[in-house]
Design goal:
The complex is a heterodimer of chains A (287) and B (357). By secondary structure, chain A is an all-alpha fold. Chain A has 12 helices and 2 strands. A two-stranded antiparallel sheet of chain A has the order 1-2. By secondary structure, chain B is an alpha+beta fold. Chain B is built from 9 helices and 22 strands. The longest helix of chain B is centred in the middle third of the chain and has 18 residues. Chain B is elongated. Chain B starts with a strand and ends in a 6-residue tail after the last strand. Classes of the chains: A mainly alpha (287), B alpha+beta (357). Chains A and B meet through helix 8 and helix 9 of A and helix 3 of B. Chain A: It is a multi-pass membrane protein. Chain A: It comes from Arenibacterium halophilum.
Chain lengths: 287, 357
C-alpha cells in the first residue's frame, strides 16, 4: 500500500516559486511581447504570429544566425581537439600537476568584459602588443576595426584562449580516472598509441567530453559580452552574432515585439540543438 | 612457450637503494618450467606483484637478468616479450564487442582475419562465452568481463607465459570457485606456463602444481601444496598456510633434543641446524588433547562446524588444536601431546630437522 502524503508539496513549493520567478514568469512576459505591438504608454495591439513570420523571412536574421553557427562551429572545432591534446600532454602526477591546473584555470577566472577589453587593447594596431608586432614588426596589415577577417580571427582566438581550459580540465578529470591496468593491458596486447587513444582514453573521456561540448555549445551560442566589448559587432555587421543583434533590436531600436519573437526562436534553437546532441551522445549507453 | 629463468634479480623503487630494506625484491633466483601452473603466494607488500611486473616487462629490474629460454629479455618492452597478463580489475575495451575484444591482441599483431576468427571462436568456446560474442563488452557482469580479460591473454597460441595478478578479487564468492576450476581446466587444454599471483591460500593451492611462497621480497619456499602444508621450510609458511596456521613455540636446545615449557618434546628426526632463536613448529591438526605432555589451560573453543578449534595457553604461549571429538570446557586444564613425525624444529625461522626415513 502506498500512502499519500500531501505534505511533500510543501517541500517542493520553494523550488517552484524560485523557478517561477527566475524562469517561467520572465519567459511568459517575453511570450506576451512577442504576439503584440506597442507604441509606448502601455498600449498593446494584438499581432498574432506576424513577428515570427517576419523574423523567419528576414535576411538580417538569417545572416546573424549563419554567423552564429559559423562562430560556434569554429570554436568547437578548435577547442575540443585542442583541449584533448593539451589534457593528454599534461602530467598525471608530480609537482607540475597543480601548476598546470592553476595555469589552465586562470583564463576562466577573468570577468568576461575584462577579457573583451584585454583583447581589444592587445590587438590595437599602434599600441597593442599583438597589433604593433603584426603591423610594425612583421609588416602584416592587421586591424580588426577595418578588416572583417582580422576581426573574426581575433574573436575566435579570444574565445579559444578564454574557454579551451574548460575542455582541458574536464578531459583531464576523465583521463586521470583511468586505472594504470588499462595502459598496461594495452601495452601487453600490443596496441599502438592511436589505439590506446581510440579504445581506452576516448571512451573513458566520452561522458565528460559530452558535457564539455554541451557547455561550450550553449555558452558560445549565447555569447555576448566579449565580442561586444571587443568589436561591438563590427566592422559593419561582420561580427554581429545573434545576441548582439538581439540587443540592437530590443534596446537600440526598441522593437520589443520582434525582439521578443527573436528571443523565443533563439531559445528554441539552443534548446533543440542541445537536446539533439545529448540524446545522440547518450543513446549508445542504453543500447 | 618457454622456460623462464630469473637470475640474481633485485629490484628497488628507490633511485639509490642502500640497505637491503630498500629493496622490494631482495634476491630472486628461480626457473619457471615450461608449461607449469605456478602460484605466487604471499601477503600484501611481499613483492609478488613487483616480480610479476618484472617478468611481464612493465617494470625493469634494478639488477639481474630475465631469460626466456636462452634469450635475455631484461630490457625488452612487454609487447616484444610475447606474454599475457590478466589484472586484478577486469580490463576490457568498452566500446568493442566481445568478439573484437578477444580479437584485439591478434589484430594488433597483424594476423589474418580467418586466423583471428578461428582462434577467437576456439577461445570463446573454452570460456563459455560464445553466446555473447556479439554483445558490447561494457554490458557484461564483472565475472564475464574477467573471463574476457583472460580470453585476451589466452587467444594468442604462442605466448611464453600467462600471468594472473589476483584476478578473482572483484568476483562474487560463488563465481570465484567456478572461474578457478575454469582456469585449471584451461591450463590443461592450452598447456601454457601460467603464473598466478594471490594472497589467498585456497586459490593458490587449488590452481597450482607448484606454489612459490614469498615474504619481504624473498622466496621463502617452493613446493607442491602438500609439501607446503606438511613441511613448511620457514615458520612464515607454517603461519601463512593452513587455518589456523602452524603453532610456533619458543623452545630451547638440551642435549640434542628440544624442550618447550621445561618439557622435552620428541622431534621428527635429528637436528641439522642451529641459531639464535629456536622454535618448535607443530600444526594444530597434529596436536591432541588428553593427559600427559605439556599442560595448558583452555582459553577459547571455536566451533567451525566440521571440527572444533581449541586454544590453550601454556604460560604466555598460545597453542591451537583441531579436535574432532568432544571438547573440554573453557578454563579446564588439559595435557597437550604432539605427533612426533609432524613436530619440527626451526632455527631463526628456518627448518632445522630432518625427517627419519
Amino acid at each position: 500500500m502506498k500512502t499519500q502524503n500531501n505534505r511533500a508539496w510543501l517541500f517542493v513549493l520553494p523550488v517552484l516559486l524560485l523557478v517561477a520567478f527566475n524562469a517561467l514568469i520572465p519567459i511568459m512576459t517575453v511570450v506576451n511581447y512577442s504576439v503584440q505591438e506597442t507604441f509606448g504608454n502601455n498600449q498593446f495591439f494584438w499581432q498574432g504570429l506576424d513577428w515570427f513570420q517576419q523574423l523567419l523571412r528576414s535576411d538580417r536574421f538569417h545572416a546573424a544566425l549563419g554567423r552564429q553557427f559559423l562562430f560556434t562551429g569554429m570554436i568547437l572545432a578548435i577547442e575540443v581537439p585542442l583541449g584533448i591534446i593539451i589534457a593528454l600532454s599534461m602530467p598525471k602526477k608530480g609537482i607540475w600537476v597543480p601548476v598546470c591546473l592553476v595555469l589552465m584555470a586562470l583564463p576562466m577566472l577573468i570577468p568576461w568584459n575584462v577579457v573583451g577589453a584585454m583583447w581589444n587593447i592587445f590587438t590595437l594596431p599602434d599600441i597593442g602588443l599583438l597589433g604593433y608586432f603584426m603591423n610594425h614588426t612583421l609588416g602584416i596589415s592587421y586591424d580588426m576595426t577595418q578588416n572583417p577577417i582580422a576581426a573574426w580571427m581575433t574573436v575566435i582566438t579570444m574565445d579559444v584562449w578564454h574557454w579551451t581550459s574548460l575542455v582541458v580540465l574536464l578531459c583531464y578529470a576523465g583521463l586521470v580516472s583511468i586505472p594504470d591496468a588499462y595502459y598496461q593491458a594495452a601495452r601487453i596486447d600490443g596496441a599502438s598509441a592511436w589505439k590506446v587513444f581510440r579504445y581506452i582514453q576516448l571512451p573513458k573521456m566520452k561522458t565528460v567530453l559530452t558535457i564539455a561540448v554541451l557547455l561550450r555549445f550553449m555558452d558560445s551560442f549565447n555569447i555576448y559580452t566579449e565580442p561586444f566589448v571587443l568589436t561591438g559587432g563590427g566592422p559593419g555587421n561582420s561580427t554581429t552574432l545573434l545576441s548582439i543583434d538581439l540587443v540592437k533590436i530590443a534596446l537600440g531600436q526598441f522593437d520589443l515585439g520582434p525582439a521578443a519573437a527573436m528571443s523565443l526562436i533563439y531559445f528554441a534553437i539552443t534548446l533543440l540543438v542541445s537536446w539533439l546532441f545529448y540524446t545522440l551522445m547518450t543513446r549508445d549507453d542504453n543500447r | 612457450m618457454a622456460k623462464i629463468t630469473l637470475s640474481q634479480l633485485r629490484h628497488s623503487y628507490l633511485p639509490n637503494p642502500a640497505s637491503p630494506d630498500d629493496y622490494a625484491l631482495k634476491q630472486i633466483d628461480h626457473t619457471w618450467q615450461d608449461g607449469g601452473a605456478y602460484a605466487l603466494l604471499g601477503p600484501s607488500g611481499c613483492g609478488k606483484s613487483t616480480l610479476l611486473n618484472i617478468i611481464s616487462g612493465l617494470l625493469e629490474p634494478s639488477e639481474g637478468q630475465i631469460l626466456f629460454d636462452d634469450q635475455d629479455v631484461t630490457h625488452l618492452p612487454p609487447d616484444k616479450r610475447n606474454i599475457a597478463q590478466v589484472f586484478q580489475f577486469p580490463v576490457i575495451y568498452d566500446t568493442m564487442s566481445v568478439y573484437d575484444n578477444l580479437a584485439f591482441p591478434l589484430r594488433n599483431r597483424g594476423r589474418a582475419e580467418d586466423v583471428v576468427r578461428q582462434r577467437v571462436t576456439e577461445i570463446a568456446e573454452m570460456l563459455d562465452v560464445t553466446a555473447m560474442l556479439e554483445t558490447r563488452a561494457s554490458h557484461l557482469s564483472p565475472d564475464n568481463k574477467q573471463k574476457i580479460s583472460m580470453g585476451r591473454g589466452l587467444v594468442r597460441n604462442d605466448v611464453n607465459v600467462v600471468m594472473f595478478d589476483e584476478p578473482l578479487t572483484v568476483i562474487d564468492p560463488h563465481l570465484k570457485w567456478k572461474l578457478r576450476s575454469k582456469l585449471k581446466e584451461l591450463h590443461h587444454r592450452v598447456k601454457a606456463t601460467m603464473i598466478y599471483v594471490t594472497h589467498d591460500q585456497t586459490e593458490a593451492l587449488t590452481f597450482a602444481d607448484q606454489v612459490v611462497v614469498m615474504d619481504l621480497g624473498v622466496i621463502v619456499q617452493i613446493g607442491t601444496p602438500v609439501e607446503l602444508f606438511e613441511r613448511p621450510a620457514h615458520t612464515f609458511v607454517g603461519h601463512f598456510i593452513g587455518s589456523p596456521g602452524m603453532n610456533v613455540l619458543p623452545a630451547e636446545l638440551d642435549n640434542g633434543g628440544a624442550r618447550f615449557a621445561g618439557v622435552p618434546i620428541p622431534l621428527e628426526g635429528p637436528i641439522t641446524g642451529s641459531g639464535q632463536r629456536i622454535e618448535i613448529g607443530i600444526r594444530p591438526e597434529f596436536v591432541s588433547l588428553g593427559s600427559g605432555g605439556v599442560t595448558g589451560r583452555v582459553r577459547k573453543v571455536s566451533d567451525l562446524g566440521r571440527h572444533n578449534v581449541v586454544e590453550a595457553m601454556v604460560g604466555d604461549t598460545r597453542i591451537s588444536a583441531i579436535v574432532d571429538g568432544p571438547v573440554p570446557e573453557q578454563g579446564a586444564e588439559v595435557g597437550l601431546t604432539f605427533r612426533q613425525d609432524q613436530t619440527r624444529l626451526y632455527a631463526d625461522g628456518w627448518l632445522a630437522t630432518e625427517a627419519r626415513p
